[in-house]
C-alpha cells in the first residue's frame, strides 16, 4: 500500500488485513503482530506525561494534572499502578475518516503505542489491555495501563 493511497484504499487494506489475521492467527498472535504496527514510539507524548509525573506525588495526582492540561487524551485513576487511558477520537490515519467500523484487531496497534509511551514514562514493563475502540462502535478508545 503506497503512502499516497486514497483513504478508501487504506480502509479496504485495513479490512483485508484484519480478515487475513483472523483467518490465520490466534488472538495472542494477532495482538503481537498488531502491537508491532505503531506509527511512532510515543516519545513526544511521553515528554508531556513526564512533565506531569514529575510534579505529582502519586498516580492520582498525575492523572489529575494530565486531565487539567491535556485534551488529546484523558485518564482515569484505578490504582497506584493502574489507570485507564482514553482517546476521545480515532487518530489512525488509515481508517479515521471512513465512518464504517472495523474489528478490534485493527486497533490493537494502540496497545503497542501505549506500552512504548508509558514504558518511557514509568521506566517499567507495561501491560496494556484494549477495552473499547471507536472503530468498533464505542464512543472512545480506552485502554487499561498497568505497571
Overview of the molecule:
This protein is an alpha+beta fold. It has helices at 7-24, 27-35, 43-55, 59-69, 104-107, 109-122, and strands spanning 74-79, 82-87, 127-132, 141-146. Strands 1-2-4-3 form a four-stranded antiparallel beta sheet. The longest helix is centred in the N-terminal third of the chain and has 18 residues, at 7-24. The N and C termini lie far apart (36 Å).
What's the quick description here?
With 147 residues, the chain is α+β, with helices and mostly antiparallel strands. It contains six helices and four strands, in the order ααααββααββ.
**Helix content range:** 40-55%
- The residue-averaged pLDDT reads 96
- Mind summarizing the main beta sheet? 4 strands, antiparallel
Tell me, briefly, the overall form: globular
Series of secondary-structure elements, N-terminal to C-terminal: HHHHEEHHEE
- Low-pLDDT segments, ≥5 res: none
| Counted beta strands | 4
Query: How are the strands of the biggest sheet laid out side by side?
Result: 1-2-4-3
What is the terminal-to-terminal distance?
36 Å
Helix count, per DSSP? 6
Structural class by helix and strand composition: alpha+beta
Amino acid at each position: 500500500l503506497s503512502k499516497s493511497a486514497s483513504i478508501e484504499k487504506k480502509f479496504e487494506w485495513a479490512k483485508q488485513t484484519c480478515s487475513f489475521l483472523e483467518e490465520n492467527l490466534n488472538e495472542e498472535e494477532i495482538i503481537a503482530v498488531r502491537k508491532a504496527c505503531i506509527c511512532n514510539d510515543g516519545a513526544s507524548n511521553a515528554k508531556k506525561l513526564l512533565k506531569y509525573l514529575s510534579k505529582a506525588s502519586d498516580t492520582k495526582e498525575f492523572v489529575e494534572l494530565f486531565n487539567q492540561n491535556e485534551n488529546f487524551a484523558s485518564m482515569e485513576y484505578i490504582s497506584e499502578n493502574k489507570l485507564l487511558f482514553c482517546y476521545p477520537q480515532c487518530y489512525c490515519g488509515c481508517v479515521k475518516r471512513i465512518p464504517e467500523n472495523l474489528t478490534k484487531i485493527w486497533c490493537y496497534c494502540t496497545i503497542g503505542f501505549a506500552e512504548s509511551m508509558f514504558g518511557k514514562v514509568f521506566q517499567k514493563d507495561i501491560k496494556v489491555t484494549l477495552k473499547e475502540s471507536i472503530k468498533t462502535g464505542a464512543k472512545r478508545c480506552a485502554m487499561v495501563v498497568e505497571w
